[in-house]
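Run: sequence + S-adenosyl-L-homocysteine -> complex structure.
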Amino acid sequence: MVKVLMSKNDKFLIKDITKDFHTKHGFFKKEELKKTRKITSNTKKEFTVFNPYFIDLYKKIKRDAQIIPLKDIGLIVSETGIDNKSEIVDAGAGSGALCCFLANIAKEVTTYEIRKDFIEIVKKNIKFLKLKNIKIKNRNVYEGIDEKNIDVITFDLPEPWKAISAAKNVLKTGGFLVSYSPTIPQATDFINEINKDKDFVHVKTSEIIERNWEIDGRKVRPLSQQIGHSGFISFVRKI
Ligand code: SAH
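>> structure
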């Protein structure tokens, strides 16, 4: 059983509640970690223990390949309206961050990944998040996609234009192809290929800039350290 331990200033995920939990704020006795309640460490620091939400677990998944940050996943989910009826194909899986987040909302996600070492990380993350609706395929997505009648396809690939025809074959009419690229030449080459195809419409390409603020009394200002550049997100629909 996994628990969250949270105070005004700090937060921990306890992965094993059969042992006392040690922190820089002192330690918490295992007997006290089972139920949702306020507890104090041996050094009298007050924390609350509760069952994790999906997002508490998600923020602790293993990362190897560069993951898509939450600010960008937010746009992908809102622009495509992914819901519990959505059938999704994702490539490449990388650490599985995007596919796991989407699987928590969608009906089913199939993710393609060429590297076996990354697949092992994705499997661990799926197990940790207790997701039952993700399939992983150790395949080169440029060579084709097997699934049919797909609502949304997400690409986070070095050369996404090479997978356009694979996507076209399996997307439903009106379905979305979302391509995520860290650089503008990748986004440009992808959209220029899309624009040559009469069966695809370029809806938009966006970059999300998130600025976080410190609010402490009247000391109210943007944090000096912000999230840096992540990627450009292109939305395309099949007609
Ligand atoms: N979106 C992922 C990160 C993907 S990183 C996340 O949020 O965690 C890009 C991944 O694409 C890498 O793991 C790489 O191995 C994989 N990849 C590159 N080319 C591929 C291809 N042709 N077919 C399938 N996977 C590919």
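>> summary
The mean pLDDT is 97. The chain has six helices and 15 strands.
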